[in-house]
Specification:
The chain starts with a helix and ends with a helix. The longest helix is centred in the middle third of the chain and has 38 residues, at 314-351. With 539 residues, it is mainly alpha-helical. It has 21 helices and no strands. The protein is globular and about 70 Å long.
């Protein structure tokens, strides 16, 4: 099997990188629109009780829309893992048995999420009371009303997850990554033209409408591929059982991940007003570069892993895992440096206007600094999880995630209650739990395959050494900018100064980092530079 992989190596690598670049491009656009959405929300609502109520409530339906049904979520992953092995020719319409399997999966998914949505609608107040334990009655009541408005998102999330999986199976990578733009645009337009600062309910309505529009965007392409929903309950189908065996533990695993967020919400409710909003915005800033990296490489890599497992090609899995994670590590280190040195300026530049003041900027930055250290274990954990899924094993990630709940509670208690670390304690505990999950998952994969960690972490050591030198160079550049910052500038000139600082220090950071890695003969830097030079020459 090794000969086959080496024979197809160049074509597979080129295809992977092309798909990664295209997805990265679309993801960048999506994240930028998402940033504009967050800026608009921050401008109208700031870091206040209204914004806290919305973000507390949104965490529940987002479980379906982003975690369970989103790109890389259980429904997407289970669909790719099973359907990619049932469709020999992607140019042909699906066979009747494949379409029947699709209908069974879709029917049971819709039924499940309708029931779940009704439960959260009926019991919205006691649920929010439980999560926001130290919140005021006004905050709980407002969050409860937001949750009721957003319950239709449960059904949409599950359906879109299956759509995403089918589209990725057919190598239609663009549409799943374009659809979040729709929700962001709907939210921007609706709160801009129908702002209600006292309740924020228009924000919840806009979120629901945006989710519906996401579904409408995917539906025509699914029909064009030949998939038609004919409701049935053929749950004895062996392939449906395969889906369930992969899906249920993965759903539980993602739900456990959401429980970590609920633990954070419980502890954050005892902090100052706007704390949960600040953590939410910090996560969005964090997910901008990290989301681009992970989505760009893991979306096209996952079907490759699934096919290599089906072919029993262990060398191929090791090779593409190291290549994918190595490139993710390579991109992650300068991101960490940028967040640590330029995080405050970036948050201020993006959010600080209208109702979002300097105090809110500092809260978001504090959360972001402690969150940044999780980037390396984050990309490793997400990558190794895809390998488990390719082996149809979602139980191990679930057990690992479940076991870390106790650790999350303990760390939050130590950092928040005992050490009084405030917002930073919440995100620091998140980073440490992510590291725990990455280490444990990386260790137990040996039960499936012996990975080549030596070469992977040897390259990481070179990148880390380059990163330390790069950090020092960039720190000096950032210090000089602050030292010679003219005083008493107008707001416009202050924004321009921060923008110039971010651009100049960012260029110095990336330039020195790439240069040092080339000097250390780090293979990922050399490969990316070679491909970049070839593209320049073609232009």
């Amino acid at each position: 099997m090794t000969t086959t992989v080496s024979g197809n190596d160049n074509s597979k690598t080129t295809s992977l990188l092309k798909a990664a670049w295209l997805i990265a491009l679309v993801t960048i656009v999506s994240k930028l629109i998402g940033f504009i959405r967050d800026v608009v929300i921050a401008n109208f609502y700031g870091a206040s009780m209204v914004s806290d109520a919305y973000f507390y409530a949104y965490q529940i339906p987002s479980l379906a829309l982003l975690l369970l049904g989103g790109v890389g979520g259980p429904f997407h992953s289970a669909t790719v893992a099973v359907f990619s092995k049932l469709i020999p020719d992607l140019k042909e319409k699906p066979q009747e048995e494949v379409n029947r399997l699709y209908s069974t999966f879709m029917t049971t998914t819709i039924l499940f999420f309708v029931i779940l949505g009704l439960i959260f609608y009926i019991f919205s107040t006691p649920i929010m009371n439980l999560i926001i334990s130290d919140g005021t009655p006004q905050l709980v009541a407002l969050a409860s009303s937001h949750l009721k408005i957003m319950t239709p998102i449960f059904v949409i999330g599950g359906v879109c997850g299956i759509y995403y999986g089918l589209l990725v199976t057919y190598k239609e990578f663009m549409l799943p990554n374009l659809s979040p733009i729709v929700m962001s645009l709907v939210i921007i337009l609706m709160i801009s033209f129908a702002h209600d600062g006292n309740s924020g309910k228009v924000l919840a309505i806009a979120t629901t409408v945006g989710a519906i529009c996401q579904w409408l965007l995917q539906y025509p392409k699914i029909r064009k591929l030949g998939y038609k929903l004919k409701p049935n309950f053929d749950i004895k189908n062996p392939e449906y059982k395969n889906i369930c065996e992969l899906l249920f533990p993965a759903v539980l695993s993602s739900t456990v991940g959401q429980l970590h967020i609920y633990v954070d919400m419980f502890f954050t409710s005892s902090l100052r007003e706007g704390a949960w909003t600040a953590i939410g915005f910090a996560n969005r800033v964090f997910q901008f570069p990290v989301g681009i990296l992970t989505v760009a490489f893991l979306v096209p890599l996952f079907p490759i892993f699934a096919r290599l497992v089906a072919e029993n090609d262990m060398d191929g899995i090791r090779k593409y895992f190291n290549k994918g994670v190595g490139i993710l590590f390579f991109g992650a280190i300068p991101i960490i440096i940028g967040i640590l040195l330029l995080g405050y300026d970036g948050v201020s530049l993006i959010f600080e206007r209208g109702e979002f003041g300097q105090n809110a900027t500092m809260m978001v930055t504090e959360a972001l600094w402690f969150l940044s250290v999780s980037i390396l274990p984050y990309v490793f954990r997400d990558s190794i999880t895809r390998v488990y899924y390719s082996f149809n094993d979602s139980k191990t990630p679930f057990v690992v995630a479940f076991s870390s709940i106790v650790l999350k509670v303990l760390l939050n208690y130590i950092f928040i209650i005992k050490m009084g670390m405030s917002i930073g304690g919440i995100t620091l505990s998140t980073s440490l739990v992510t590291l725990f999950n990455a280490i444990v998952l990386g260790y137990f994969i040996k039960n499936k395959i012996t990975m080549d960690y030596k070469s992977l972490f040897k390259n990481l050591a070179k990148m880390f050494a380059a990163g330390i030198v790069c950090f020092l160079i960039s720190y000096v550049a950032a210090y000089l900018f602050d030292l010679y910052h003219p005083q008493l500038l107008s707001d416009v000139y202050n924004y321009l100064w921060k923008a110039v600082k971010i651009c100049v220090v960012g260029i110095i950071c990336v330039g020195s980092y790439v240069g040092l890695n080339l000097a250390f003969k780090m293979e990922y830097a050399e490969e990316l530079m070679t491909r970049f030079i070839k593209k320049i020459r073609r232009c």
